[in-house]
Design brief:
11% strand; alpha+beta; two-stranded antiparallel sheet; 12 helices; four-stranded antiparallel β-sheet
């Protein structure tokens, strides 16, 4: 059986302590300074090529539609559950969550980009404003949608208030995009409520005409009255789904790029 030989220490092997590191840094101080200066200068120069971005911040309150403030069971007694199933409605659905989902939806963002013609603003370096045509291959809507969504920030606090932030090339345009986005969500949610309430009201009116049982007639009449109320609310002048709290905050102070931080990191 072979005996284990003692490990022979390499004469070039030595423990490196803090003092050795300090001596090495001192010997190469000029090279280190030049490297630091070059990297910082390159990062600073690169940061100057990045266009400035500004933001607009809107404080919003999610408006609770009348149909979510009370369920059909409370409003109509024991037949409320039957009435809800009758129309195929989920009376406990959180409509405010649907409104919030629209602000974060890529499908909604895509339609908003097409409607407002935002592609040239999202890719200004690839758009020839004089000729009104793209330089080279035009960007796809999928890529533009991802870029647009990255410019939005939607946060909801514990009290249910929503903060919408839009980042754009200048502050007035960021404020305008935020206003248009809020108005478009309100418009879509209002149209959906009108279509749903009108369809339900027409169906209930027809069903009431053919229903022979008095108890069911009372339930259907109550439901028809409720849908008529929803129609009137949806046609009102007030904000339907998103209520703006105060003016939109859009300071003329860039939020990006953070050139000092980039230079320090470089």
């Amino acid at each position: 059986m072979l005996q284990q030989l003692p490990r022979v220490r390499d004469p070039d092997e030595s423990d490196v302590g803090p003092a050795d590191v300090v001596r090495w840094l001192y010997r190469h101080k000029i090279a280190l300074f030049l490297c630091t200066f070059i990297f910082a200068g390159a990062t600073a120069a690169y940061s100057l090529t990045i266009p400035r971005s500004y933001h607009a911040v809107a404080a919003l309150r999610l408006v609770t539609p009348p149909e979510t403030q009370s369920t059909l069971s409370t409003a109509m007694g024991g037949l409320g559950g039957l009435a809800g199933s009758f129309l195929g409605m989920n009376v406990n659905a959180d409509d405010t969550a649907v409104t919030l989902a629209y602000l974060r939806s890529q499908a909604f963002a895509r339609s908003f980009i097409e409607e407002k013609g935002l592609l040239p603003e999202l890719y200004p370096d690839r758009w020839d404003a004089a000729q009104k045509q793209w330089i080279g291959e035009p960007p796809t809507l999928d890529r533009a949608t991802r870029s647009f969504v990255n410019r939005l920030r939607v946060e909801q606090d514990t009290e249910g208030l929503v903060e919408l932030e839009v980042i754009w090339s200048n502050a007035p345009r960021a404020q305008e995009i935020a206003e248009q986005l809020i108005a478009r969500v309100n418009e879509v949610r209002r149209e959906q409520a009108l279509e749903r309430a009108k369809g339900n009201f027409d169906y209930l009116t027809e069903r009431l005409r053919r229903e022979p049982v008095q108890e069911m007639r009372t339930t259907i009449a109550n439901m028809a009255s409720r849908e008529l109320t929803l129609l009137m609310v949806a046609q009102g002048p007030s904000d339907y789904a998103l209520e703006q709290i105060g003016p939109i905050f859009a300071p003329d102070i860039p939020v990006a790029p953070r050139r000092r931080v980039m230079t320090m990191i470089g």
